Amino acid sequence: MNSRRGAALLLTAVLALSLAGLRPASGQPIWIGLNFEVHLRADGTAVVIIREHPFALNGTSLFGDQEVLLGMLQEAEVNRVYAALMFASSPEHIETELLGPPEISQNETVLADPLNRGRMVEYRGAVVTRVLVNLSTAEYVRDLGDGRYEIRIVDPFTARDPRSWIDVLKISWDEGVEVLNVGWVPSSASGPTEQGDGYLLWLNYNEPSAPDAYILTARLPGLTVAPPPGLSVRLEASRVGDVVEVRVSSDQVKYAVVRIVGPGEDQARGVSLDAGEWRTVRFYTDARDLRAEVYVGGRKVAEAPVSEGSPTGLGGGSPSATPSPLPALLLVLGILTFLAGLSLGGRGRREEEEGQFGWQVAWETW
User: Fold this and answer.
1) What is the maximal distance between C-alpha atoms in the chain?
2) DSSP assignment of 65-92, as one string?
3) 280-335, pLDDT tens digit by residue?
4) Is 342 strand, coil or helix?
5) CA dist list (Å): 232 to 34, 137, 143, 280, 314
6) What are phi and psi of 159, to 5 degrees?
7) In percent, how much of the chain has pLDDT > 70?
């Protein structure tokens, strides 16, 4: 739920629409209570369930207003983007799918604090959107080896504006999913408010208590981030002056990470590849003796030296049987850079240290 509502109640309706994330419907400004649930499935996918309940600025429920509900039903694509941004820096970098159109449910409930009183109230009735996320394409999923994966669930509101955050987030999982550890960043944020058999629930009442990212170490039997069998990637890399141009082509539609590395230099960019088409990625650097690398599913599938003036390339072919893993340092630097950007955006007081609790200990002490 977008939590910039305190300021919204003090401003005019027009200003509230721009600053508080309120959405106009039925000719009046409204405030939307949002509850998120991320359900991890044993097959290596996740279902993001978004439950919404509309309110007037005075806190009155508008769930009975059919015109308001009709307007909310038109925003399924917006919610799909929210779901994608929980696992990737851009919706183009991850495979997502709407599981049918949004539904108006009289039985679902939403926790909300429309009057900003510091306590959640349960409201019956919700507009429900379900989005399927393919975790094997997720930018924020990392293979730790031994069947273990680190899954980062990023707050899509905080990532764009540190004054907003998810108020209610539930993380649940199938019986076949084994959750080994749970953490969050920054460490000063609060841990789960409630936990039960197969779920964790966060109620975030204010910005200091709300995590920027929720981090799970888990085993999902159906999840794999290795490149698919038979994947063929072509790569060309050249430079003119301080501009390095890398061209990549694949025989399959995939999300890839393009990296340039050398003495004193290590940069990476994400790119979506369309089958049979070339994509160009540009880097700016004065470093020399560089090579370009392409990673799919966390594995290196192609590399080539960066030539001066004209491209050098690696011909098509499948990845080797033992492809090189994406260096852990690159992943860590990417995560740190992302979270540092959040701090520069207004959370300078918060540090990157990860808060966590030992899973076995947590069940005994909470």
Assistant:
1) 66
2) -HHHHHHHHTTHHHHHHHHHHTTSSSGG
3) 999 999 999 999 998 876 567 889 999 987 555 554 444 433 334 444 444 444 44
4) helix
5) 42, 17, 22, 17, 11
6) -60, -25
7) 74
The torsion region of residue 254 among left (phi > 0), alpha (psi -120 to 50) and beta comes to beta
Q: Coil, strand, or helix at residue 175?
A: coil
Q: Are strands 45-55 and 28-40 parallel, antiparallel or unpaired?
A: antiparallel
Contact status, residue 96 vs residue 134, Cβ threshold 8 Å: yes
User: Which value, to the nearest 10 degrees, does the dihedral of the CA atoms of residues 83, 89, 95, 99 take?
Assistant: 10
Which pLDDT score, from 0 to 100, does residue 131 have? 97
Q: What is the mean pLDDT of residues 131-151?
A: 91
pLDDT at 364 over 50: no
User: What fold is seen in the domain 233-322?
Assistant: Immunoglobulin-like (2.60.40)
User: Which residue in this structure is represented by tokens 């994966």?
Assistant: 149
**Dihedrals φ, ψ of 141, to 5°?**
-110, 130
Which of these, 222, 271, 216, lies nearest to 247 by C-alpha position? 271
Express each pLDDT in 209-222 by its tens digit. Answer: 999 999 999 999 99
Are 287 and 267 in contact by the 8 Å Cβ rule? The answer is no
- Amino acid present at 305: P
4 neighbors 34 (Cβ within 8 angstroms) = no
- Predicted pLDDT at 106: 95
Least confident of 2-11, 44-53, 121-130: 2-11
Buried b (16+ CB within 10 A) or exposed e, 5-18: beebeeeeeeebbe
Q: Where are the domains of the chain?
A: 5-219, 233-322
What pTM was computed for the model?
0.64
pLDDT of 301 reads: 84
Look up residue 133 and give its two tokens: 């996320």
Per the document, the length of the chain is 366
Cα dist from 268 to 61, 264, 281, whole Å: 47, 14, 10
CA distance 32 to 20: 10
pLDDT of residue 227: 64
Other CB atoms within 10 Å distance of the CB of residue 248 = 23
Other C-beta atoms lying within 10 Å of the C-beta of residue 143: 19
As beta bridge partners, residue 313 has: 236
Tokens standing for 297? 């599913």
Predicted local distance difference test score (pLDDT) of residue 174: 96
